[in-house]
Amino acid sequence: MAKRESADEIGQAKTVRLWTVPQANERIAQLAELLPEMRTWVERLRVVHTEERRLRGLWGAEIDARDIPDRKHKDRLDQEWAALTRRLEETLEGLKRDGIEVKDLEGGLVDFYARRGGAVVYLCWKSGEDRVAFYHPLDEGFRGRRPLSDRE
User: Fold this and answer.
1) Is residue 13 within 8 Å of 120, Cβ to Cβ?
2) Order of strands, sheet of 146-147, starting from the edge strand that comes earlier in the sequence
């Protein structure tokens, strides 16, 4: 007996783009370039955070005072943090609106919403793989990956 779609799956399918395997494979080249770029943004956020913690340790409660000698440096760090965070969030949100979810940025794990056998599923791709070759149900993660047939 075929699994019935839940209300969430039906709602998701109506609001998110559903990908075919060939369409997802065409998008991989762009994602293969974008994911490392996004990782550099995250790494820079870590550096900025570390530097802000260093300043906070140095200045304590005075960190936000206008007259500390490190004021310009602190302001630049705050601006960079805000810009990088906004860029990362907008990029992830744009991908999500397009039916693509980044599940693990460090590992390069990406899921594409798709329909398979009447159910909404994820097509699953990981950096280093040359094509989308797996899928899994929405309620299962990477461990639930199943191979696509060769004709898909």
Assistant:
1) yes
2) 100-104, 109-116, 119-126, 134-137, 146-147
H/E stretch holding 39: helix 21-59
Query: If phi over 0 gives left and psi between -120 and 50 gives alpha, with beta otherwise, what is residue 60?
Result: left
**Does residue 12 contact residue 38 with C-beta atoms inside 8 Å?**
no
Query: Taking the domains of the chain in order of start, what are their residue ranges?
Result: 7-147
- The CA-based dihedral angle spanning residues 128, 132, 135, 141, taken in that order and rounded to the nearest 10 degrees: 30
At 41, which helix (H) or strand (E)?
helix 21-59
Q: Is residue 16 within 8 Å of residue 113, measured between CB atoms?
A: yes
Share of residues in the chain with pLDDT > 90 (%) = 84
Task: Report the alpha-carbon angle 28-121-30, nearest 5.
Answer: 10
Per-residue pLDDT tens over the stretch 68-114: 999 999 999 999 999 999 999 999 999 999 999 999 999 999 999 99
3, β-bridge pairs? none
Structure tokens of 89? 């969030």
Ramachandran region of residue 128, left (φ > 0), alpha (ψ -120 to 50) or beta? left
